[in-house]
Amino acid sequence: MQTQRKAFDVRNFVGGEWVEANGQQTEAVYNPATGEVIAKTPLSTKEDVERAVGAAEAAFSGWSATPVTQRARVLFRFKMLLEEHFEELRDLVTLENGKDAKDAAGEVRRGIEVVEFACGMPSLMMGETVRDVASGIDNVSWRYPLGVVAAIVPFNFPCMIPLWTMPVAVGAGNTYLLKPSERTPLCSKRLVELFVEAGVPEGVVNLVNGAHETVNAILEHPRVKAVSFVGSQPVAEHVYKTGTASGKRVQALAGAKNSMIVLPDAVLEKAVPNIVSSAYGNAGERCLAGSVLVAVGEKEAQDRVVEKVREAASSMKVGAGYEEGSELTPLIRDSHRQKVRSYVDLGEKEGAEVVLDGREVRREEGFFFGPTILDGVTGEMRVAREEIFGPVLSVVRVDTLEEAVAFTNGSPFGNACSIYTENGAAVRYWREHVEAGMLGVNIGVAAPMAFFPFNGVKNSFYGDLHATGKDGVRFFTENKVEVVRYLSEPASGEAVRLPQEAGA
Ligand code: NAD
C-alpha cells in the first residue's frame, strides 16, 4: 500500500445523511508512519449529539418492530460487504493507526466474526420458558431492545472495536450512535457506509465524531439508555460513574498491565516469538499486550529467557505498517511517544536496568519508538504497575510460581495473564489463583472469540456485563418476564374452541 496523500472528509452521519458537525473545532488525524495530516476530525457539540439521538429515537419504533429475521438479513449482507472490502478496511487500519498489514487484517477478521455471531440474533434473542409453574400457569421471558444506545471507542482497534457492539446492538433491535476515537475516525466512517449499503434503515446507525465534550454530552443525554465504552482506565471510570449516575446501563472496558509468566520448563523456541509478538505487536498499543515478563526459577533459567527475548526483540525491523517485513510499527502520536519515553526514563530512575533501549530509534519521520526492555523491575516500581502502552517490556524475576502470581495480583488491573509451561498442575494452580479475566496458556494475546465475553476484571473493567458473546446480547437487551394462565376451561374431552366459535 502507498502512503495516502489525499485528505479524507470526516463528517457525522445522522438520520441517514452525512452532515457537517455543528462544532467548529477539529483534531488532526495523522498517518503515524509519516506524521502527515490525513484528515481533520470535527469535534461535535451537545447539539450534534442531540440531533443524532433524535434521529436514533425516531427510528427506534420501526426498527425494533422489524422482525428479527429481517434484521439478521441486513447483518448477513453487512458481513458479505465487509468481506468484499476486507483489504480496503485492512489498509485503512494501517493508515490511521499505523499497525502492520498482518495485525490490521487480524483485527478486521475479528470484527467480522462479531458480525457473524450477531447473524444468529434470532436464536440469541430467545427468551426462556417453563410450563406449569403452578397448575395451568406458564412462566415465560421475552427479550426486548433497550432503545437508543451508544458506543465510545478507542484508537487502537479502529475497525474491530466498533464491530464489538454495532452488529449486536443493531441486530437486537436498538438504534445506535457511534463515537469513534478522534485520532482514528476513518474506519468507523467506512463501516457505517457499508452498513448503510447493507440496507440498515435511516436513523438506525448514527455516527458523531468528537472527543471528551462529545462523550460527556452522550453521558448526560437522558434518552441514551446504554453506553458501551472502551478506552483508558481514568476515562472508563469517569464514563462508568457519570453514565450510571444518570441512570444508564454502562459497560466500560479499561486499561491493562498484563503479565506473561514464564516457567523454567517453557518451550522457549516457540514461546519467545510469541512473547515478543505479544509485547511489541501493534507497538505495544494493545490492551492484551504482555507488558511484564515474569521470569520464574533459578537465575540461570531467568537469564535464559530474558536473553532470548532481548535477542529477538533487538533484531526487530522497525518500519511503517505498509512496508514489507516491518515488525515494529509507529506509535499513534508524537505526544504518546514522549509519554512512553518518559516511562523508560522513570524506570531507569526507579532502579531498573535498560537492557534494550528504543529511545533513539533511527527514523526521520513518523512516531517510531524502538523495542525496549527494563530488567530488574520490582512490584513497587511504577513501571511495573502503570500502563505504558508502548513497545516497552518490564522484566520481573521471581523464584516461584506463587511469587509470580502474587506479583501479578498486586496489579490494580486484571485484563489478561499468560503462562508459558507444559506443566498442567502449574497451569491449574495459576488459573485458580490469578486475578485476570482473560487467560492464555502458551498464548501471549489471550483474545477471546466473538462468542465469548471480552472479560477484564478489577480496574480493567467497570460494569456487570462484558462486551461480545452472550454478555453483549444481554447488555443490549432487557427481559420482560410473564406469568400466564387462561381462565376459560373447555369441557372435559372437548377441543379448545376459537374465541369466535365460542361467541366471544
Ligand atoms: P482514551 O481513554 O484516551 O479514549 C477512549 C475514548 O474516550 C475516545 O473515544 C476519546 O475520545 C474519549 N475520551 C478521551 N478522553 C476523555 C475524557 N477526558 N472524557 C471523556 N471522553 C474521553 O483511550 P485511547 O488512548 O483511545 O485507547 C487506549 C486505551 O484503551 C488503553 O488504555 C487500552 O488499554 C484501552 N483499551 C482497552 C480495551 C479493553 O478491552 N479493556 C480494548 C482496547 C483498548
Automatic annotation (TrEMBL):
<dbReference type="InterPro" id="IPR016162">
    <property type="entry name" value="Ald_DH_N"/>
</dbReference>
<keyword id="KW-0520">NAD</keyword>
<dbReference type="InterPro" id="IPR016160">
    <property type="entry name" value="Ald_DH_CS_CYS"/>
</dbReference>
<dbReference type="InterPro" id="IPR015590">
    <property type="entry name" value="Aldehyde_DH_dom"/>
</dbReference>
<dbReference type="InterPro" id="IPR016161">
    <property type="entry name" value="Ald_DH/histidinol_DH"/>
</dbReference>
<protein>
    <recommendedName>
        <fullName>methylmalonate-semialdehyde dehydrogenase (CoA acylating)</fullName>
        <ecNumber>1.2.1.27</ecNumber>
    </recommendedName>
</protein>
<dbReference type="GO" id="GO:0004491">
    <property type="term" value="F:methylmalonate-semialdehyde dehydrogenase (acylating, NAD) activity"/>
</dbReference>
<keyword id="KW-0560">Oxidoreductase</keyword>
<dbReference type="GO" id="GO:0006574">
    <property type="term" value="P:L-valine catabolic process"/>
</dbReference>
<dbReference type="InterPro" id="IPR010061">
    <property type="entry name" value="MeMal-semiAld_DH"/>
</dbReference>
<dbReference type="InterPro" id="IPR016163">
    <property type="entry name" value="Ald_DH_C"/>
</dbReference>
<feature type="domain" description="Aldehyde dehydrogenase">
    <location>
        <begin position="18"/>
        <end position="480"/>
    </location>
</feature>
<keyword id="KW-0614">Plasmid</keyword>
<dbReference type="GO" id="GO:0006210">
    <property type="term" value="P:thymine catabolic process"/>
</dbReference>
<dbReference type="Pfam" id="PF00171">
    <property type="entry name" value="Aldedh"/>
</dbReference>
